[in-house]
Amino acid sequence: MRQQGNEIVMDREEFLVNTLAAGIACQLLAQTSQLEVSGWMEYLSDKAHEQFYEMTPKQRDEMINSWLEISKNV
What we know:
This protein has helices spanning about 10-30, 35-55, 55-70, and strands at about 1-5, 5-10. By secondary structure, it is mainly α. The protein has one domain. The chain has a two-stranded antiparallel ribbon. Strand 1 (about 1-5) and strand 2 (about 5-10) form a beta hairpin. It is globular. The model has no long low-confidence stretch (mean pLDDT about 95).
């Protein structure tokens, strides 16, 4: 992941790994609860949107900068 102007650029491999990680997490949650995978995906997406809109622009920038720094070390 890298910043290119105002855009965040992620290569295909990193995108797919992150997507697979989210899918695996939803599968594990479904296996240990009464909610199906699609229910977990919807729930987590809703929670992420809520959190995003509660963040200040500064908090969003700090989170992006943290992820950019972490991705340099991976």
